[in-house]
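Recap slide: Glutathione peroxidase, sequence and predicted structure.
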Amino acid sequence: MRTVYDFSVKMPDGTEKALKDYEGQPLIIVNTASKCGFTPQFKGLQELYEQYKEQGLVILGFPCAQFHNQEFENIAETTAFCQMNYGVTFPMFAKIDVNGSDADPLFNYLTEQKKGVLSSRIKWNFTKFLIDRNGQVTQRYAPTTDPKKIEADLLKLL
């Protein structure tokens, strides 16, 4: 059986990062955008991370410009924006596509495991996936879901 730990992703500097490095830790995986109406969710995600990182939580942010090009072109601008405006310290990765023929394999896997209301494709920025300590996708949350509303489900995994 596949898990999220079977995938590798690109870091902002282009190097590969094996998600196996996070094995045994609950994860929140989210596609992000710096110029979106939901961008303030970075604050709530960072708060969850700070509150539960000692218990193993890791949040993985994946910038994406597929929805009205709401992400900076340069990944360095993205990471600087997230750190300066929202104090983001959780891992951010290279910009990716989450839908279509160029979709990152991790997001293809996530959407196969947990479909949205009408389809499996990602509908917008800040779609969030909760992953248990075994690397299984347990929940999918809509872009409109405030990160604080994930907390009850997260506590069951800690």
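The mean pLDDT is 93.
The first strand starts at residue 8 and ends at 10.
(End of recap.)
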